[in-house]
Amino acid sequence: MSIQRRLALSITLVLLLSLTLGAALTYWHVVAKVRTEMQAALAVGTQTAAKAVDGRDGTDAPARRLRRLVEDFDGDRHIMAVLTAPDGHILAQSTLLQPDEPAPAWFLTMVAGPATRVDLRLAAPFDAVGALRLEADPHNEVAEAWSDVLLTATIMVLFFSMVLALAFWTIRGALQPLRDVLTALSRIGEGDYATRLSPTMYRELQPLRDGFDTMAERLAAMRAQNRDLHEQILNLQEEERAELARDLHDDVAPFLFSVGADAAMIRQYLAAERILEVAPRADAIAESVRHMQKHLKGVLRRLAPETLIDLGLAGAIDNLVAFWRLRRPAITFTMDLTDDPVDPPLDAVAFRVVQESLSNAIRHADPTTIAVCIVQSETMLTIRIEDDGTGFAPGQTPLGFGLASMQERVKAVGGRLAIRDRPEGHGVIIEAALPIRIDRDDTMQGDRASDAKVADFCGRSDAPPL
Ligand SMILES: Nc1ncnc2c1ncn2[C@@H]1O[C@H](COP(=O)(O)OP(=O)(O)OP(=O)(O)O)[C@@H](O)[C@H]1O
Ligand SMILES: [Mg+2]
Questions:
Q1: Could you tell which of 403, 421, 466 is best to mutate to test the pocket of ligand 1, judged by most ligand atoms within 8 Å of the CB?
Q2: Are 162 and 115 in contact (CB under 8 A)?
Q3: Selection from 79, 72, 86, 71 nearest residue 126 by Cα
Q4: How many whole angstroms from 227 Cα to the centroid of ligand 2?
Q5: Residue 82 has pLDDT above 90, yes or no
Q6: pTM beyond 0.85
């Protein structure tokens, strides 16, 4: 059921309940009023009649005086006087005032009580003429109440219709922003990040609009960033290719040339039977081949660094650290690496995080120590690299290409990356938490460190995301 219909139904229900309650109260009020009016009219009529026949004004011509008394009641709204002879036949009867707009019979039946009448006791000589009876007639009173009820009912129906119309109009207006949000969300879903919500007149919905617009701006910014990253990757690939071509040209081509030259020399020496000079040329060829092998190994590592992972993550990181130890002997490297095998693709992501963090620390921060810690629990692979270098420059938003691609890689496997300054002194902490898919069949899981142990190894793991 729609919100609109539900609200409309609730309001209608409340209005109908109040209408029913109002009708019941009106009914009791009308019944009581008719009864009171009839009793009051009878009391006044009785008093008037009693006074007329109490004998104070004389007792001559009692029949005429009684008939005049009955005539005095002509045109009364509530009381009808009836004079009956001792044998029971009616001698005289007053006429009631007829209501202009009588109430319907069903209403009369509902609100008029049982007929009320009073038989007056006449003193002599009036009692010889006959008996005088006063009857209360509710027609006029009920007609009056009926016209009041009609007026009240008309006012109530008008009031309720206006309340309902206003409620419908307000609900419709209040739900419009939600419809706008749905339309805008589907446009965002189609990739139209320029979509914005129009200003709303409802203060409560202002934060929704602001939140939506901020989200759309962020999505647009992320798409632009992705585009930039993609471009950078393409440029980088081009540069990498050009550099590889230069390396091959500069470092391999000369050796190939010298191998060719040495081979030609050997042929010449053999033809001239200068056997003793063959060995140094063969040694030179072997030396050139060694150079080329070394160089090609470096090129291959750059082309396909994932092959390093074949050594296992810990082995690959050992190699990486050994590489830097050789070039930066002044830096102390400490390592605390899981011995458990780490499954792809988490091993490659972890390796990339460590590789970029090490090269960043060494290139930008001049540290004296760098600690690398990798711990695997049943659900999480945690990687933490901490250096005691200069740290980020104050106010720096530390997202260059290296850190941005690190973040992308971590996000791609559903992980969290935190980049922050060390709380104690200078330096930077990079921490990545990569969730492990637990649906695989892995007998090693039971041996893995618990999540609590991860915190022990790698210190706090509650770093806020960058
Ligand atoms: N460990 C660190 N200590 C101090 N500053 C750092 C550290 N790591 C990164 N930075 C700062 O953050 C910036 C962004 O790093 P990022 O790796 O994204 O880019 P980069 O290293 O400058 O370039 P790239 O990685 O693309 O070759 C760096 O330029 C540097 O100023
Ligand atoms: Mg970098």
A1: 403
A2: no
A3: 86
A4: 19
A5: yes
A6: no
